[in-house]
Amino acid sequence: MSSFPVLNDEQWLKLLEQVAQSFNEVTLSRGFNYFKQQRVASLVITENRVVQARVTGSEDYSVKLYLDKFLSNTCTCPVRTTCKHLAAVIMELADRLGYPASQIVNANYHLKRATSIISPESQLKQLPDMDINSWHKFLDQYTAHVKPSYDQGTFTNVLRYELQNIRKVAVPFSEMDLIFFELHQELFILRKIKEQTAQGTVSYYTSSALYRMYDEIHAWLHQKSAQFDFTLAGERLKQTLSYVRQQLAKETDQKYLDYGLYTALWKYWIAPYPDAKQWVLQEINDITQQTTDSISSSLSAAKAFLYLHQSRTSDAWAALEASGTLNKAPTRLFLPFLNHIAAARDWDNLIDWLLRTASYFYGQRTKELDAYLGYWKEAVAHVPDAGKHLWTVLEEMLPHSAQIIDEMLYEQRQWKPWLEMQIFKGQDPLYHRVSVLQPIEKEAPALLLPYYHQAIEHYVSLKNRHDYKLAVKLLKRLDKVYKKMKQAERWDRFFSGFMERHSRLRALQEELKKGKLLE
User: What is the pLDDT of residues 23-57, one digit of tens each?
Assistant: First the structure.
């Protein structure tokens, strides 16, 4: 962009007015996606205030935006005029000139807002004196103009982009308050997505954006833990826990996503501190007071999680049972429990919980199942006798645990059952890289003999040149195994008998010569 015109507030309002009159909401939403994806590859302004830009998509399109003759705008795409490419260029221009691109997406609202609302800077500077509930009311008002979109990714981006404008004002936050305010901006966006989910107006897009938001907040909590010291902001933490508990009370879909945030908050921000025990006691009391006749499954899970922090493992399980939480519990519910018990190095209780929760992990292999097995391996490393329980669990998981059993047998160097499993699955020696079988050749070469013999006879029985070549390849490996065992005479006897049995197979004889097994 070679030069920028001075776009004053009056010209900005005029541009908003022209956008509101010319574009529909769907096009503006698509344009915002292009803008956020940085599809505007180049943008130049001429002396006569014409913006020339190139926008990339399925194809490259050239856009001309006439700032003084808005109706003359053109694009080389099939739509020609009020298209998403032109909308993206207007947003890119606004962004480069210091105006919020999100106002283009909601042009109608901003036109009304501009005539009735004074600069919000004075209100923003009051944020440090507000409690957390007031923060959320403020954020509701601040983003009231942002209309929900069918595409929740777009809705999330517009909200986040709008909230970035707060950073342009010098709000006198303390270091801890700033961390809390950043957290609650993310929790606010999460709440807005959940509210639209509850309306049932979206499906896959909502689910995708929702899970992504939870993952991002988890990562953010972990990242900020190094900077966080709740002893410097005890009241903010108390208010935050209260807010999250309110969300837990509303969580009825048994996905336990808010419960996951709650446990992450404890893991990263509270548990590492010596005063954590007092906070656990207070939080249990607060949950008890918050619930009267009934308690949500998520709050029950949170209470059970807190009991574990007091080493009350029996009470924790009883809390889950009493509320019916265990009826349809997903695997993700149990991982924070297992993680806490393992971190406490309470191996007997860990084994007990692993056995109690085993049936919930039955099914296809998932990252949750891998995490569950990781806790088993940790327990067995400290209590070897627990190994028999682990194998019982894996047997009950069959057939989904077949690959896991395969991997564990190999890791534990249990070569005989591992080889028997390969034969059972129909995987001959050529299925594996040579390096996989090398440890067995070194430690127990005799176990490989039936594995090789069976595979060789199988390939010969297929009676075609390609399989003869594979049989020869295995024969050469088998020769090495006999030599490693220092049983060359046994190899000679076997090979002589093999040649005698298959002497009429000329193609096999030819391949044996090529493989230098015959003179």
Answer: 888 899 999 999 999 999 999 988 788 999 999 98
Identify whether the C-beta of residue 81 lies closer than 8 Å to the C-beta of residue 73. yes
Lookup result for tokens 């966006």: 189
The answer to whether the beta carbons of residues 143 and 159 sit under 8 Å apart is: yes
User: Rounded to whole angstroms, what are the CA distances from 27 to 20, 74, 311?
Assistant: 11, 15, 56
Cα separation, 161 vs 292, in Å, equals: 40
Within 8 A by CB and 6+ apart from 360, the residues are 329, 330, 331, 333, 334
Q: What is the pTM of this model?
A: 0.65
40-45 β-sheet, strand order: 40-45, 50-56, 60-66, 74-75
As a dihedral over the C-alpha atoms of residue 191, residue 195, residue 198, residue 202, rounded to 10 degrees, the angle is -100
Run of H or E residues at 43: strand 40-45
H helix or E strand, kind and range, residue 65? strand 60-66
Residues 6 or more apart from 479 whose CB is under 8 A from it?
491, 495, 517
Q: The tokens 């919020």 sit on which residue?
A: 100
Which residues are bridge partners to 319 per DSSP?
Answer: none
What pLDDT digit, counting tens, does each position of 410-452 carry? 999 999 999 999 998 889 999 999 999 999 999 999 999 999 9
